[in-house]
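Let us practice reading a record.
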Amino acid sequence: MTQPTDIRRVALALVTADVPALPLRAGKVPFGNCPACKGNTCGGRPNMKNPGPCQCPRPCHAWAAATTDPRVLTSAAWAPAWREAAAVAYHPGGAGLTVVDLDDAAAVAWAREKLPATRTVATTRGQHWIYRGAMQGANAVRPGIDIKSLASYARWLGPGTGTMTDLPDAVRALVVKKPTPARPARPGVAVAALAGGGECRHRTPVYLERGIAMAEQRITAAQSAIHTTVYRTFLAVLSAHGRCGCLADAHVERLFTAAQAKGESLRHCTDAWANAQAALGL
């Protein structure tokens, strides 16, 4: 069994090489927000408008907690995390690197055909291909393929083999969004008026705001079964608001942000949302 001291020793070795490191809990999950940062009260939650790093003395905010300061890694504030840590992760973008995370054999076969060779690291089911150069990270750019670079983290699985090469345009092109064909408008859903001729509650801003805030709170308060909680919360929100057209992208983004703060990946959030829609026939 790997000991916490061994895990921290790996992290310190990465820091010595100027690779930002952070601890991971079991299941490749980063540590959640500490009390000082709960609900983004510290103003440091990483996102594209405010890309961190987190200034909190404890290892929270996922990739933004990665540090190259050995004094931080060995500080008393981080000691509880190292006692619970199951692995070490690093911030590829902070080290000027990009990791093409190939999740299965089919993805590896595609990369061998389409991408230039570079340093590779074996994973449980596939490989990490590491290139020199940073770019915006993105999940599910192709079936079984994630890009780990800026604003993302990757599990450290060793230095790998082969010669690292420069980040090719073929990898950058994977995150370029292609225009989606226009979809026919959904037919409107008839909503019966409330007794007394009142306004549809689904279109009442106060009702909707309360529902989204309660959903965020439910996800944030979850201490276990995070996957299940996220899915059931998405299902509840869509059940209440999915048919009347009142949900906006900003509302969905708030729910995804809450889920990702608990360690959910963008792919898992997207899948949970799609599964909830399918379950409701939306």
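A brief commentary: Confidence is low (pLDDT under 50) at residues 44-51, 180-199.
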